[in-house]
Specification:
Chain lengths: ~450, ~280
C-alpha cells in the first residue's frame, strides 16, 4: 500500500476514536520480563527439583539466576481508547515481547497490565491453518483461534471468501491452493477481526502489495469506533503516517511522544535500522585524516532510498566518502548480516576503474549492487568499512550503519515457489532446478480405494 | 433492568488486569467457557484430519479394536485359555478394548497436544487447557463407531444388554476424565521434558497389562486386589462388561478408590497445568 492510503486509514481511525479519548484502554505499570537463556531443553535442574520449584512458585532456585536477560525492564505507559500507537526500537528491544505480554501469550516477570476491551493480536497471519482442511474449515478454525465467535464468522463468512477471492476453491483443501491464495485467505480472516484493542506485529508488511491495500481499506470501511491499536514496525515511514504517537523502547522506555520526534530520535540514536544515514558535519564523521564516511544508503532499482525491498529485486548499497589525503589505494568493504545476526556475506569493491589505483582527493560514491533473488527474508544489517592498502589500515568500520527489510511477496516466482511456510537462511538464491524423469516400463500398481 | 444493562456493558468491554502472580486456585474456567467454540473447532479439526488421505478412512476406528480382539482371542482365548466369565472370548475382549482405546488414544494425543500446537501457543492467547481437552474428546468419535460395531457383535452372539446399560455413560465419562487427568500432567511436563513422548507407548502398554483387558478380574489374586483397584481403568472396564454383558456389577470397593483417585489426579493435574501454563510460550 502507499503512504497516502495508510495515512487516510489512520486519520479515519483516530478521528473515530476521539469519541472516547478520555478512557484508558491499555495501562502498563512497571512491566518487566526476564528470560533465561541457554539450552532450555537440556535442563540443569533435576526433574524432581523442577517440580518442587514449580509448586514453591519461585520458578527456579537462585543458582539459575545467572543466565538470564531482561527483555523488558520497568516499562510504564498508558494508551487512551482510540489511540493508534507505534512501537519503535531495534531488533531485540523487546517490542514483540511487549505484544506477547499484552496479548497474554506470555506472563510478565514483574509489573501489571490493565486492558479495557477484547484484545486481538496479529502476530502472524494464518496461525492454525491446516493444509488438509478446506478453505471453509480453515476460516472457521482460524477465526476461532483469533477470538471470533462462530456467529460472527457465520455473519462475515461470504464477505471473507469474496474478499480473499477464493470463491471457487472454498471447499478445496488449502494444500491445493497456490501460495498467493492461501496468504489472501489468511489475510482476509485477519482483516475481519474486530476487537477493541488490536496488537499488530509487522504482519501487514508481508504479502502482495495490492492485497495489503485492500485489507487496510477494508478495516477502514468497517468503521471501528474507538479501536485502539499498537503497531510494531521497522518501517519508519509507516510508523510516521500510521501512528500519531510512538514509543521508543530498548528494554526500557526511552521516549514517548509524537511519532515524527520519536522516529527522528530513533534514527539518530545509532541503534536505528534506517535505510540511509548521513554525517553532515565532517568533524563528526567516522574515519581519520585519510578518508571520512559521509553517508551510507540503501537504494532500490529505481534509485530511491529503500526501507523495504522485494526479494526479487536488486538492492544497491551506496557508500559516500570523502578522500582527504590523496595517493592511497582504497577498498570499500561491506558486511551484511541477517536478522538472526549471522554474517550473510562480505563484499569488496571490484570496480575496475578504481581497482589498484591511487585515488585523488574528493568525494566518492561507491555502490554495490546485490542481485535480486539472493538474500533471505527479514531485516538485513549492513556494516560499512574502508580499508587502505600498503599498509593495510582500516580507515573506518561502521557497524549497523544501515538496515533494510527483504520481503517476499510470495507470488510464486521467487525461490519459495509455491511453498508458503517458514523459510530459514540468510540467503535465498533462486536456483536452477532440473528434473530427470524415466517413465515406468511396467504398468504402475493401482492404489486401492 | 438497570443492573442488567450495566452487566451487559461490562461484558462487552471487560476490564482485565494481570501480572506475574496467579492465584493458585484460579483455574480461569470462565475463559475456558467463553472460548468453548474454539474447543469445538479443535475437536472437529482433529476428527477431520485424522483419517484424511487414508484408504480405509473411518474404518480404522473399527479395524483397530477388531484386529486387537482377533489377536487376543487367538493368544489368550485359544492358546492360553484365559477364562472369560463364561462369555465368548472375542466379545469379552472387545467390550474391554472399547473403553481402553478411548482412554489410550486420549492419553497419547492429549499428552502431546501442547507441543503439537506449539505454533498456536507462541502466537495466540487462549486457555491452554483447551488443547489437551480437545485431544481427549476427539477419540470419542472412534469410540462411537466401534461401539456400533459392538452392538452388531452382540446381536451375532445373541446377547441382550441389561439395564446396567443405563450406567454406561457414567463409565465412559470416567474413562475420559481419567485420560484427561493423566494428559494434564503429561502434557505440561512434555513442554519442558520431551522424554514424555518416548515414555508414553511404554506407559500405555504397561497400563494395559495392569488392566483387565485380556483377562478377567477374577484371576487377579485376592491379596493384590487392593493395589490393583487403584487403577481407575479397572473400574471402567469392569463397569463396561457389567453394563453390556451382564454379570455382577463392579464392587463399591473397586469403584470408590477409582473415583477418589481420578478426582485427586484431575484436581492436582489442573493446578499443575495452570501453574506450568505461564511459561509454556517461553519454553515450548
Amino acid at each position: 500500500m502507499d503512504d497516502e492510503e495508510r495515512s487516510s486509514f489512520v486519520s479515519r481511525w483516530v478521528s473515530l476514536g476521539s469519541l472516547n479519548m478520555s478512557e484508558i484502554a491499555i495501562r502498563v505499570e512497571n512491566l518487566s520480563k526476564r528470560y533465561r537463556i541457554g539450552a532450555l531443553h537440556q535442563p540443569r535442574l533435576g526433574f524432581r527439583e523442577a517440580l518442587a520449584a514449580t509448586f514453591r512458585g519461585t520458578g527456579a532456585p537462585p543458582s539459575e539466576r545467572a543466565n538470564e536477560i531482561w527483555a523488558l525492564r520497568d516499562l510504564s505507559f498508558e494508551v487512551k481508547q482510540g489511540e493508534v500507537v507505534g512501537i519503535v526500537g531495534r531488533n531485540g528491544a523487546g517490542k514483540t515481547t511487549l505484544l506477547k505480554i499484552l496479548s497474554r501469550i506470555t506472563r510478565p516477570t514483574m509489573g501489571h497490565v490493565e486492558l479495557r476491551g477484547r484484545v486481538g493480536s496479529l502476530l502472524e497471519v494464518g496461525t492454525g491453518f491446516h493444509p488438509e482442511l478446506t478453505g471453509r474449515e480453515n476460516i472457521y478454525m482460524n477465526g476461532a483461534i483469533l477470538g471470533m465467535r462462530k456467529s460472527e464468522i457465520d455473519r462475515k463468512f461470504d464477505e471473507i471468501v469474496a474478499f480473499a477471492e477464493v470463491e471457487k476453491f472454498i471447499d478445496t483443501p488449502v494444500k491445493r491452493y497456490s501460495s498467493g491464495m492461501a496468504v489472501r485467505l489468511a489475510f482476509a480472516v485477519a482483516a475481519h477481526l474486530e476487537p477493541e484493542i488490536l496488537l499488530v506485529d509487522e504482519v501487514l508488511a508481508v504479502g502482495d502489495a495490492r492485497f495489503q491495500k485492500k485489507c487496510l481499506n477494508k478495516m477502514e470501511d468497517v468503521g471501528q469506533r474507538g479501536r485502539t491499536v499498537l503497531f510494531v514496525s521497522h518501517n519508519m515511514p509507516t510508523i510516521n503516517r500510521l501512528c500519531p504517537r510512538s514509543l521508543l523502547i530498548d528494554g526500557v522506555l526511552l521516549m514517548d511522544g509524537p511519532s515524527p520526534e520519536i522516529v527522528s530520535a530513533y534514527l539518530n540514536s545509532g541503534q536505528n535500522t534506517a535505510a540511509a544515514r548521513e554525517w553532515p558535519d565532517p568533524a563528526l564523521a567516522p574515519g581519520g585524516e585519510v578518508a571520512r564516511l559521509r553517508a551510507v544508503r540503501v537504494r532500490g532499482r529505481d534509485g530511491r532510498i529503500a526501507e523495504t525491498v522485494d526479494i526479487r529485486e536488486p538492492v544497491g548499497l551506496e557508500m559516500e566518502f570523502e578522500v582527504l589525503k590523496p595517493g592511497y589505494v582504497l577498498l570499500p568493504h561491506y558486511h551484511v548480516f541477517s536478522e538472526a545476526g549471522a554474517l550473510a556475506f562480505e563484499a569488496v569493491d571490484t570496480d575496475p576503474e578504481w581497482r589498484r589505483r591511487p585515488r585523488p582527493a574528493g568525494r566518492y560514491r561507491s555502490t554495490a549492487w546485490v542481485p535480486g533473488n539472493f538474500m533471505g527474508e527479514g531485516m538485513m544489517y549492513v556494516e560499512a568499512a574502508l580499508i587502505t592498502m600498503e599498509p593495510v589500515i582500516t580507515q573506518f568500520w561502521e557497524r549497523n550503519v544501515v538496515a533494510f527489510q527483504v520481503l517476499d511477496p510470495a507470488e510464486g516466482d521467487s525461490a519459495r515457489g509455491d511453498w508458503m511456510g517458514r523459510m530459514e537462511g540468510a540467503v535465498r538464491p533462486l536456483l536452477h532446478w532440473e528434473t530427470q524423469f524415466e517413465p515406468a516400463t511396467e504398468p504402475p500398481l493401482t492404489v486401492e480405494g | 433492568m438497570t443492573t442488567k444493562t450495566e452487566r451487559q456493558t461490562h461484558d462487552d468491554v471487560p476490564l482485565i488486569r494481570f501480572g506475574p502472580e496467579q492465584s493458585l486456585f484460579d483455574l480461569e474456567l470462565g475463559d475456558l467457557w467463553r472460548q468453548r467454540e474454539l474447543l469445538y473447532f479443535l475437536v472437529l479439526r482433529d476428527i477431520k484430519i485424522r483419517y484424511k488421505q487414508t484408504a480405509l478412512g473411518i474404518g480404522w476406528a473399527i479395524l483397530q479394536p477388531f484386529l486387537t480382539m482377533v489377536i487376543f482371542t487367538a493368544i489368550f482365548g485359544v492358546f492360553v485359555k484365559v477364562p472369560s466369565n463364561g462369555q465368548p472370548y472375542p466379545i469379552f475382549a472387545y467390550t474391554a478394548l472399547l473403553p481402553w482405546n478411548l482412554f489410550a488414544q486420549g492419553v497419547a494425543r492429549g499428552s502431546t497436544g501442547l507441543v503439537d500446537n506449539a505454533q498456536l501457543i507462541t502466537k495466540v492467547f487462549f486457555p491452554r487447557l483447551i488443547l489437551p481437552l480437545a485431544a481427549v474428546i476427539a477419540p470419542a468419535v472412534d469410540f462411537v463407531i466401534a461401539f456400533v460395531f459392538l452392538l452388531g457383535m452382540m446381536a451375532w452372539y445373541r446377547l441382550a444388554p441389561t439395564v446396567g446399560l443405563l450406567w454406561l455413560p457414567a463409565f465412559v465419562l470416567l474413562a475420559l476424565l481419567t485420560a484427561l487427568a493423566v494428559s494434564l500432567w503429561l502434557a505440561a511436563i512434555n513442554v519442558r521434558y520431551r522424554d514424555v513422548r518416548h515414555a508414553i507407548p511404554f506407559l500405555l502398554q504397561f497400563w494395559m497389562y495392569a488392566s483387565p483387558v485380556a483377562y478377567p478380574l477374577s484371576i487377579v489374586p485376592e491379596r493384590w486386589r487392593g493395589l490393583y483397584s487403584l487403577n481407575p481403568m479397572v473400574a471402567v472396564i469392569e463397569g463396561f462388561r457389567w453394563a453390556l454383558l451382564g454379570g455382577a456389577p463392579p464392587a463399591p470397593g473397586l469403584v470408590a478408590p477409582a473415583l477418589v483417585l481420578v478426582a485427586l489426579l484431575l484436581g492436582g493435574g489442573l493446578l499443575f497445568f495452570k501453574r506450568m501454563e505461564r511459561t509454556f510460550a517461553d519454553v515450548i
